[in-house]
Automatic annotation (TrEMBL):
SMART domains: PASTA. Residues 79-144, 146-219 form the PASTA domain. This is PASTA domain-containing protein. It comes from the Bacteria. Pfam families: PASTA. InterPro entries: PASTA_dom.
Length: 221
């Protein structure tokens, strides 16, 4: 530890001697060339001008540093150019595997086309063969099956058991995740119990896989 400290002190001493012997005379000569003798002979004025020059030099160095950083970021973000592979008509997994090697961003949309095999890339933007830079977004459209939907049957006025049977056959058989909720309500104008008074969704409305069906059933008890 002491040896390292001694070496460091020796280096500092050498730098001080170098400054006094070589750098200081050159700096003094430089200031004498720039400023008149009256200013240089005035200690306060010379000190102020020296500080201004040093500040200007530091500002210039800082400006160069900032410009270098900005240029580096711009060049880095732009990335290298390459020829975009053509993945149209390829399977989605194969297409992703090919494009991920090029380190580009993917935006994938699913649509249904009856003239393409399922899971096939239908379109690509930009098109394959175009020269682009790494980091750019490529938009793909993949052929996916249509979402299964059914129309809500009209079950108002039916017995609750009959309504459940119709819902099971027409809806649950195709959309097993649909939830059925039933609520009880008493209606004096309807004599018979367990009659469906209202339904949500209404008849012929679209039901999707995450829908809920709510039935209000008459019960006087």
């Amino acid at each position: 530890m002491k040896e390292m400290q001694n070496k460091l002190n020796n280096q500092i001493d050498k730098l001080k001697k170098l400054y006094k012997i070589k750098l200081k005379p050159k700096i003094t000569k430089f200031f004498k060339m720039i400023f008149p003798n009256k200013i240089m002979n005035n200690r306060n004025s010379a000190l102020v001008f020296k500080r201004l020059i040093l500040f200007a030099l530091l500002l210039f160095v800082l400006q160069c540093f900032v410009v270098s950083i900005v240029v580096f970021i711009v060049v880095k973000s732009g990335g290298k150019s390459f020829i975009l592979p053509d993945v149209q008509n390829k399977g989605i997994y194969e297409a992703i595997k090919i494009l991920e090697k090029e380190k580009i961003n993917l935006n994938i949309q699913a649509r249904y086309f009856n003239n393409y095999p399922l899971g096939t890339i239908v379109s690509q933007e930009p098109k394959g063969g175009v020269k682009i830079k790494k980091g750019r977004t490529v938009y793909l459209v993949v052929n996916a099956p249509e979402e299964i939907t059914v129309n809500m049957p009209d079950i108002i006025g039916l017995k609750y058991e009959e309504a459940l049977n119709i819902i099971s056959n027409d809806v649950i058989s195709k959309l097993p995740n649909v939830i059925i909720n039933n609520k009880v309500e008493s209606r004096e104008d309807i004599q018979e119990n367990n009659i469906v008074l209202s339904q949500t969704p209404l008849a012929n409305e679209i039901i999707k896989s995450d829908s809920e069906i709510t039935l209000i059933v008459n019960n006087k008890e």
